[in-house]
Write a structure and sequence with these properties.
There is one protein chain. With 143 residues, the protein is of the alpha/beta class. The protein has a single domain, classed as Rossmann fold, CATH 3.40.50. The chain has helices at 16-29, 40-49, 70-78, 97-104, 119-126, 132-135; strands at 8-12, 35-37, 57-61, 86-92, 109-114. α2 (40-49) runs parallel beside α3 (70-78). The protein is globular. It holds the Pfam family Response_reg. Keywords: Phosphoprotein. This is Response regulator.
Length: 143
């Protein structure tokens, strides 16, 4: 069984245009079908309802969202029994060094990128040591 079938990609982003662009770029980078959640509350709900909580998830997280923002999402995620299987990459419009430092100090966060992201950024994400083994067989050739 391929590693692709055992890993998921979730995008938590309130701006549908950005979410779709990220989804498109992800699909051009790695063989996957990302799930889009429009805020942190939807993302937690999705993660809670998964059939197999041991399935690893790469979660692309915006910090500034309505209903439940990225910071509150990270706080709730820490208390979840499946949290060890969730690998968060923060993708935000925030250019504040304090936000980057705070995010990277969270044990769930494995990367921090400032919008907009391009395909090369996603290639960098999939090369992160915490997740590269999950997607190594699924990286698509650069076209």
């Amino acid at each position: 069984m391929s590693k692709l079938k055992t890993a998921e990609v979730v995008i938590a982003e309130d701006d549908l245009i950005i979410a779709r662009l990220e989804q498109y770029s992800l699909q051009k980078t790695v063989h996957c079908t990302p799930v889009i959640c429009k805020n942190g509350k939807e993302a937690i709900k999705y993660l809670d309802k998964r059939k197999d909580p041991d399935t690893p998830v790469l979660l692309i997280l915006d910090l500034n969202m309505p209903v439940l923002d990225g910071w509150d999402f990270l706080g709730i995620l820490e208390s979840k029994p499946y949290s060890k299987n969730i690998f968060v990459v923060v993708v935000t419009s925030s250019i504040f060094q304090e936000d980057q430092k705070r995010a990277l100090n969270n044990p769930q966060v494995i990367g921090y990128f400032v919008k907009p992201l391009f395909r090369d950024h996603f290639k960098q994400i999939f090369e992160l040591p915490q997740i590269n083994h999950l997607f190594a067989d699924s990286i698509l050739p650069h076209t």
